Amino acid sequence: MKRSTEKIYLSLAFLWFTTHFGGGFASGRQVVEYFVRYGKYAVIMPIISQAVIAIVLYAAWMYAFENKAFYYRVWTDKFYKPVEKVMSNVYELLYNLTLVTATAVAFATGGATMKSVFGTSYLFNTALIAAALLLLTIFGAKFVRRAASIIAIAIIAGMFIIYIPNIIAGLPKIAENLSAFSAAPAASGLGLLDALWTTMKYAGFQSVVIGAYIAHSSALEDKKDIMKASVLGFVLNASMLVMTVLGLLIFINDGILTESVPALTVIRNGVGAGWMVPLISVLILLGAVSTGVNLIYGITQRVVILMGKNDNEASFKAKERNRSIVVSAVYVMITWSIAQFGLIPLIAKGYGTLGYISVFVIILPIVLKFYIGRVLNKPQSTAENA
C-alpha cells in the first residue's frame, strides 16, 4: 500500500491541540479557573490532565484502528458492548451538548473579540465566523487536518511571543508566589484533593470530544502513528498549558483571578505591553474557529453516514459533499443562534457537570476495558494459542 505523504501523527497531535485551544484557553480564563487558582498545585495539574487525555486518546485511536471503527457511533457501539444501547446514547448526548455549548461559546468569544478590536458589530462578526466554520468543515477530513496544522503553528508562535518573554522577566515573581503558596495553608476548596478532582474533571470534559478525533482515525497507517500522535499531543498540550500557567502566576496577586480575559493582564502589565493586545485577540479568534471546526466536522461525519446507511458506495460518495454542506450548515446555524439569543448562560449551567459525568462514562471505562482488561485477558489468550 502506498503511504500518504501526510504526517498523520503530526496532524492528529495538532488536531488535538487546536480542539483543546479554544477561546477560554486563549483568553486565560479557562486556565485560571481550572489551574492557576490552585496556587502551588497549578504547575503539575496541567501535566496530569494532559497525561490522562493522552491515555484516553491512545486507547480511542488504537481501538478504532484495530476494530475498523472510524466513526464515533460505530466506535461506541463496539466499545460499550454489551451495554452499547444505553452507553452509546449517553455518549451521543454528552458529545452533542459539548458541541453545541463549546461552539456557541466560540461564536460569542470570537464575535466579542472582533468587536473590541475592529469595532464591527457582533452580529456581523459572528456571521463571518459562521461562514468560516462552514467552509472549513465541508471539504473533508484531510482538509480539516491541514487547517488544524496551520492554525496550530500560528497559535504556538503567538503564545510563545506573549508568554516566553514574560516568564523570563517574571521568574523571580513566579518563584516568590509559589513559595508563598507553599508556606500558607490551602484555602477551603483549594487543597490537594480538590486540585486532583478538578484536574480529572478537566480531563473528563476534554475527553468528551473523542468523537472529533475518532473521525480522523481512518487515516492511521500503523500503530506507531498512534503512539507518536499521543506522545507529541501530550507534550504539545501540556507544555503550552504549563507555559500559560507560569505566565499567569506572575500576576496572581494583581486581580487576575477575577479577570474575564486574564491574558490581557499579562500583556498590559508585562513585557511588550500595547502591541501584543491585537495578537491575543487574533489568538482568541483562531481558538474559537479551530475548536468549532473540529467539533462540527466530527458530528457532520456521524450524521452524513447515518443519512447514507442504505446507500451503495457509489451513491454515498455522490451525495456525501451535499449532505456535508447541509448538516454542517444546520449545526452552524443552531450554535450561531444560541450565541445570538443569550442562551449560553442557560446551557452553561450544565457545562461544568460534563467533566464529572465523563470521568465515569469515558475515562474509567477506557481504563478498565482497554488497559486493565487487556492485561487480564493476556494470559488467557496466550494459553489458547499454546
TrEMBL record:
**Secretion signal, residue range per the UniProt entry:** none
> By its UniProt entry, which InterPro entries does this protein fall under?
YkvI-like
Alphabetical keyword list: Membrane, Transmembrane, Transmembrane helix
**Residue ranges of the TM segments:** 42-65, 86-110, 122-141, 148-168, 202-219, 231-252, 272-297, 325-348, 354-372
Q: What is this protein called?
A: Membrane protein YkvI
Q: Which organism is it from?
A: Youngiibacter fragilis 232.1
What taxonomic ancestry is recorded? Bacteria, Bacillati, Bacillota, Clostridia, Eubacteriales
